[in-house]
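$ fold --in a.seq
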Amino acid sequence: MQITCACHRNARDAFVLRAGIALPAHAAILDDVMTTGATLAECTRVLRHAGVQRADGRSLARAPSPSNRA
């Protein structure tokens, strides 16, 4: 996969799972503030690679896009 956004490059390989942890088939990921979605995407990628069948992402708030900022 080609990663073009710096935010996604920075999140790539930022998360790892320790060996021996039992994972559920369905996981929920909670992010306090979603800016670009890179954190949720990378966490989902790591969980899916480890065998989680479904990962749902939630955030408490979303930062405005640069085009919508005053």
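$ fold --in b.seq
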Amino acid sequence: MNILLTNHHLLSCGGTEIFTATLAEFLKQNGHKVYIYSHYVNNFLSKFSSLDITVSGDLKEFSSIPFDIIHVHHNINAIEIRDIFPHTPIIFESHGILPFLEQPPPININISHYIAISEEVRQNLNRYNIPDDMITTIGNLVDTSKFYPTTTVNPVPQRALLLSSRIGEKEEENIREACRQQNIELIAKGSRFGFINQDDLPKEINKSDIVFSLGRGVIETMLCGRIPIVYDYLGGDGVVSSKNFDKLNFNNFSGRHYSKNYTVNDLIKEIKRYDHSQGEILKNLAIKKFDANHNCKKIIKLYSKIIGGSSSNNADEKDLRITRYISQAIKTTREYTYQLHKEKFDEKYNTKNKTTKIYKIYYESYKRYVDTTSNNIIQENTKLKSEIQNIEEKNRLHQENLNEIKSSKFFKIWRTYNNIKDVAKKL
């Protein structure tokens, strides 16, 4: 099959970004040709390039490809897709109940079927009058060949990992204090704590006994045989066990089941519920629910069913006119946004600081990016950023070498000798 996947943005290691990358990889492993549309691309481009998957921010680049089906994340993309591909079957997948982008389009654009990542999301789709027979619940996709135990979990917790990109300072402080009082070393990763590559994440999880996280982070923790505590910016559901696994999975381990605002003492109580023997049990439960290969085959089976069936949800002409109108509004707004940022950038930097190599790389990279978002230019942008990193790394190494020389005994003796020599000349 020729399959187009969409995600509104591919900027960080967020849930839908990682899901899109994982789905694309496993679809390709199953022999399908995969393309990706996303208008905002940054760190994730290299991931798709390594898989030889074409990514573009311009749907016109794909307009001549006869797609069999389009798997859409995010309502804005759904409307854009229907405008360019008026007859291709669309599956809309929703990953949450709160974000605006996860809500289904408010007009009928002839979506063939919906996928909900959890039962809570299914209920949210029901609220938009989408019937159950048009919704299939398929859990998250996690690569179990990457996330698996490599070390034995300790009987008494010694090390914890805080894995979050959105947790607040108060919640972070509570976790740190609870771990301190229990003599548990805490490491924090994600967003303001420091970016962690998805390929390095299993190693970091396997160093820990407890992981504080939510959603996908909880699932990855269980697959590594560790004990997760669901706690983040939405509140918490506490320690996951085989007894509450299904209950918390209903809400995709989001912290919304109980939504508890834990105090330090509350967190200490949760830590004391730690049972290392649950690690193996939770791992097996997670494999059954979230193995990427297994769930990808479910999605492929759904694709085939949709392609082979007929749509009974045809949009009328009025809805199609609204679709075209919204799609054009999105495109026009983007064009003016880019133009404004380009003018501001030119005004700020055009007459100063243009002599350094680093500046020229930044400037040329930016100019190319705002002029077009085609795949080739985005790849060039990535190469330029790599050049910047190499230059900065060389500068750092030179500075380290210089500092090492300055701190050496020989340098100090040499400097003293020259000082004496200068004084002698004046005598």
